[in-house]
Design brief:
mainly alpha; 18 helices; globular; disordered N terminus
Length: about 300
């Protein structure tokens, strides 16, 4: 499974695997049982995905992704597909569609079709990465990153953000531009200052790619900017990224918490300390990290 995803995503993925294994006979499995399809247009993709519609699953997903009036996913429409089913389509269509066709997917009314479009962009970015000692395709990487940023607001739920941004924007920031210079990481600051919830989430979750490379500064900088954001989805994403930092360097996480634990949202704090030992978690939750008997700081 893909690592570095929050608890909501992990729960959905686990359910997806169970559902996927139990449903090999339903119509959506035709991608493996019929002759390989030639999917090069958005219309081809949508037809394939419409063929896998599931009304019962649609109802479950609409509740899970908070599509009711006043909720963060208000008005979103679902076909009733699970992530492994969408990935089957991506596997068939990867690297065969133009950006103009992918754009049509990103503006679909259907949540799963938009997800398919973003996952196709992930595949495009992977194909443009350096192989061995080469430089890969820096022009293509920039084109994909710019395209993603242009249409980022179409990633209008947390799964669309979390399954795409670190593998597109985060990956882009790790590799040279066509002129040999490194991309400006102020992209993340611009996103964090956006008025759009999903662009703000992109700003912090994109740093997952940097964390995987042992680079924590951008995560800490953006986390500080978002620390007092009003929305729970940002609290969770920020705490999740801080937790990932701590899994690689606990002292860096402790240093950040020592400065901010008293004022940060409790959800962010709980997510950030989730992998700590119970005694240390209690210490942070009870605001006692500076006690005389604290054994966690040298």
């Amino acid at each position: 499974m893909v690592s570095l995803f929050g608890r909501g995503f992990e729960s959905l993925q686990l359910h997806s695997i169970i559902y996927y294994k139990k449903s090999l006979s339903f119509s959506g499995f035709f991608l493996f049982t019929q002759k390989k399809r030639n999917m090069i247009t958005a219309k081809d993709i949508i037809e394939a995905m419409r063929g896998m519609e599931n009304e019962k699953q649609r109802e479950i997903l609409q509740r899970f992704f908070k599509t009711g009036k006043g909720e963060y996913g208000e008005g979103d429409s679902f076909l009733g597909l699970k992530v492994p089913q969408t990935r089957l389509v991506v596997k068939e269509a990867r690297l065969s569609m133009t950006l103009s066709e992918i754009e049509k997917l990103l503006y679909s009314e259907w949540h799963e079709v938009r997800l398919c479009g973003f996952l196709l962009l992930v595949e495009e970015m992977k194909a443009a990465l350096p192989k061995r000692n080469g430089t890969g395709q820096p022009d293509r990487r920039k084109e994909i990153a710019d395209f993603y940023l242009l249409h980022a607001r179409q990633a209008n739920n947390w799964d669309l953000v979390d399954l795409s941004c670190s593998y597109i924007i985060g990956t882009f920031l790790l590799h040279p531009l066509p002129d040999g210079t490194m991309p400006d990481r102020n992209i993340l600051d611009t996103l964090s200052a956006s008025s759009n919830l999903w662009e703000q989430r992109i700003s912090i979750v994109s740093t997952a790619a940097l964390i995987r490379e042992g680079q924590f500064g951008d995560t800490l900088r953006i986390a500080k900017k978002l620390l007092h954001h009003p929305h729970d989805l940002i609290h969770k994403a920020t705490g999740w990224m801080l937790r990932e930092v701590g899994k690689r360097n606990i002292e860096v996480l402790r240093g950040f918490l020592s400065e901010h634990h008293e004022t940060m949202p409790r959800t962010t704090l709980r997510y950030a300390i989730e992998k700590m030992e119970p005694e240390e978690r209690r210490m942070w939750m009870t605001n006692t990290p500076h006690s005389k008997n604290n054994k966690f700081f040298s």
